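Dear Dr. H.,

I hope your travels went smoothly. While you were away I took the liberty of generating a structure for the chain from your last submission, since the lab meeting agenda had it listed for discussion. I wanted you to have the full record in hand beforehand rather than looking at slides cold. The sequence, exactly as received, is reproduced here:
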Amino acid sequence: DKFLSDMLATYMGDDVPPHLRVPPAEKPDGVSRALHRVAPVDVEKVRYVLKNLARDWSAEAAGEREQSHGPIIRELTARHPPPGPERDVYPPRVLVPGAGLGRLVMEIARRGYQAEGNEFSYYMLLTSSYILNHASRANEWIIHPWVHSNCNHQSDADQLAEVHVPDVPACDAIVDGARVGGSMSMCAGDFVECYGDEQNVSAWDAVCTCFFIDTAHNVVEYLETIASCLRPGGTWINFGPLLYHWAEGAGYVGDTEELSVEMSLDDVCVAAESVGLKIETREMAEARYTSDARSMLQTVYNCALLVAVKVEDEGKGEGESKAKASP
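The corresponding predicted structure, in token form, is as follows:
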């Protein structure tokens, strides 16, 4: 696939940081690496990336993106409108954990926000970096995201269908956002480890999560970190199901037992309230994820749209009031 070969080529060479560097196609002894057998789990991750490329960066998936990104962006712009170009103030800071291939982060940035994505998957990070930084025109590459699946195709042509990416190059979109103060950045690493430190306490105006909170080993840790990141009055906007990726953890990591805390939506809301996130909106809406519109099998999630506001810690507020009143 030309997209994948072009992408990997950008990460070869001595100028690439060691932790990102991809080895050359041939070993020093001249033996081709094409003979190397890739582990099935890694093959599956590449297939998943291809499907996510179609979801995040193709015109065909615009309707699917609207189902999940649309409610998040509407809530964000209603509660934290970005300043117009005539106002000399900083735009709201918005954090997007589980950013994947970066489309939601870009859409938030292009609307005038200071948006930062966070992603843990090395496969997602490599691919998002390439498509965000190297795409120079719309529909620059062709991928075939459904070619590896043999089931539920109406025709051979459907299985071999071409998908053009990106429908909008980030270089054009971010320029539009920059005119009104928007910016975009990405942070690699585990969400709790990256944002559970002191420098991120009360540092964000909004945290937007899309198909993310169920990727946690313990969803309460995610909620605690989200609450810590938000300033008082800041907003957590969530859209997604509760699939709980680690519920069958042994399937991902062999026979090793993995922690997995699986809670109902009611319990998630109670836990959110207990860490200072007051739920103001709770709605359900259907959405697809990385779906092939022509497939005979369609998976539709009944997703939760949750909007919560970070409340001021009562004890802290009383302490501050007493301190100010003291001579």
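Two observations you may find useful: The chain is about 35% helix and 20% strand. The radius of gyration is 21 Å.

With kind regards,
E. W.
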